[in-house]
Amino acid sequence: MGHAFARQSPLMAQAFEQGKSRLRKMLHEQFAVDGVHLEHSPSYFLMVYESFLKAIDIHFMDEPETVAFMETIERALSWLVRPNNRLANFGDSNDQSSLTGKYSSNEGWLTEEIRYVASAGELGCSPIAKYAAFQQGGYFVIRVPSQDNPLDLIQSSYLAQITGFHSRVHKHADDLSFIWMERGHDILIDSGRYGYIGRTEEGSDDWQDGHWYSDKNRIYCESTRAHNTLEFDGRNYPRKGVRPYGSALTRWLEDPSGIIAVETACRHFRTIRRWRVLLMMPGEWLIVIDGYRDMTGAHHDVSQWFHFSPWLDLQAENMGFITHLTGVVTPLYLMPLLDGMDASRVYKGDTEPRMQGWFSPAERMLVPAPASCFMRKNESIGVFAAILTFSANLTVHREWSAFNVTGNQGRLRWQDEKGVHTVRLDRREGNALQMSYDCQESMDTGVK
Description:
- The chain is α+β, with helices and mostly antiparallel strands.
- Helices cover 17% and strands 31% of the residues.
- It folds into 2 domains: 31-128, no CATH class; 132-448, Beta-galactosidase, Chain A, domain 5 (Distorted Sandwich), CATH 2.70.98.
């Protein structure tokens, strides 16, 4: 109304300026300074951002500083678009969410980066950087073109980790979870939204556990065990009655070898300090390292969960797991790199004793999807290290691999058709995250 009648009425002109001021205030409350929407859901990120884009189109918000911030937001959003043009479906996001409608391949967008992902690489230009760290908003994203098909966006290596907890809004019990795409396939997936169905009774166990909605499928999709993260004693990470930590992103690096590493850390249940390091060699392998310590000395049963695409057939294999990707000759292994990690069975479409192995691709839809975990029982402190690698002949050297008791320093080794791989990690506090990597055709694996 202010915009329509500003020229006819000084009062309406004043109302228009007030409305624009309120919109700018909302913009900076909804988004972190690094451009990330603060409600833990890329789907809502896109929806809210499109609303602000429309405000620019009709000249409600066209000041240079506002447009510059919108470009920052748009570049952040572009990193949360997977190579298949679907959004990373963290939190209350549908797996079907994509860049469609008016703001599609080349219309309406402000930046070349988002035109690139919206058009499957046909328009715009890709960012030079291989990763983006959103330390205020709470995401870490890796996207690296395939060496064999650098112009084919869907063949890119892609990993996105959610590292933020800003409020209960659209927040699942998914702290430090991540998704992974490789060689044109979704491999490790998020559970999805399912839908807003039923209301939990105030004071009930589900209500105390942070669930707004009572539908059992919705409760599963929100649960810790439905995400690629650690689960302690079968419990969900608290979202109600706890202070959000903001961002758990701490350190990261890109090694000359091509490895990209990211470290995150947070606290659970008030007494458990927990950290995670992801090491990714794009196109080849991914290592997931998790450490925890209960500061009171209490013991816990801990599970390191992995959730696979419903299109993959996961099988138990020699203390770990194996699957095959369509069109990829080399199998994909998930194997423990440290002693003391017991492998679960493969879960798929389980309903008893509790739901496990499900995926929601769209509204009110739930399909079976394979899930597995490694377990450590009755410990107050421990470290997991698991590798996902494409290999025709894999041997892991658990007798050599080890971490010190604090988890600050460790070494890992495995062997395949390319040679013997060795990774050393140093994450002592007060220093930059450090690692070294080498691959030799053969070596004495007993060397200290």
